[in-house]
TrEMBL record:
GO molecular function, one term: hydrolase activity
SUPFAM superfamilies from the UniProt entry: HAD-like
Matches recorded under Pfam families: HAD_2 (PF13419)
Keywords, ordered alphabetically: Hydrolase
The name this protein goes by in its record: HAD family hydrolase
Amino acid sequence: MTSRVLTVGFDLDMTLIDSRPGIKQAFLALSAETGTHIDADLAISRLGPPLEQELRHWFPEERIQEMADRYREIYPTYAIAPTLAMHGARDAVAAVRSHGGRAIVVTAKHEPNAKLHLAHLGIEADAVIGWLWAEAKADALREHDAAVYVGDHTGDVRGARTAGAQSVAVATGPCDAAELRAAGADVVLTDLTEFPAWLDAYVAGGAVK
């Protein structure tokens, strides 16, 4: 059988990183700058979809691109330092490497800001691909021949299934375990601390030759 290098994709927000404190600060800064009310606590309760989708709750359509550009511009000032690694994130990436595999990040986030988060937290990915949401994530997963995609949102499940990858969901974001299962996740974990043992069993089961 042809050897296949194990490649595992990870989502970023609420999968590898808890970006809620930083994103809250960025939204509050945008609100103060524009004089437009943004309920930052509500916004960070539904992370996952592209920024533009959230901004539509607070700004008229004709201002969305302007506000998205401005948010991404101020984001590094407010959002990088307060963001934390999720429990088990570093060990999850290390588990992939322990099997000779590659760990990639596929996220809807603005790619330069995604890279800033990973660098700040010392999480090393073999590739970082941004600006992809839900089914569109399949493009990057196929390009990198990812066998597994790990995420916290039903959109991540759809991306994995579209790519033909194993969908491993973690119930650490806005979608609970029941929602993730209903969306078609192959596996639902409580959090990433359970991932290394699952990956050991997945590889031992002959999923990667």
